[in-house]
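ugh ok fine here u go
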Amino acid sequence: MVTDVSQHPPRRAPTPPRPDPAAAPLLAGGLSVTVETHRRTTVIRLRGSLRCATAATLRQTVETVLATGPATVVLDLAEVVADDELGLWVLPAMAGDAQRVGVPLVVVAPARDLRSRLRRLGARPIDITDTAPTGTSRP
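structure:
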């Protein structure tokens, strides 16, 4: 059987979505950063060691996310070990960055010790909670 291809245009495969540069996991000195979007909320999940040497990776990720214009940014520290106070100081700086562009930054830190350490920083008010906002929980 012969088919006349002039009557049937070739089918194109659907174009896959472009990867979001902020969505790729980054590994830098033991800190894994994953970015997910849930409606207009962007969740940045960290796993590993937050310290002075890894803080720049986190700061760069948050700056990239803020540039996309989310309604809210949730920073999930559930699987983070804060190895030094210098690494924690990036959090008030990021809260200031978010505040300047009008985006609420919510820090989820279920570990009591980590929540206490963050509150003692006292540089800028940081919205710290022990549970993720509705609709952003882990799968």
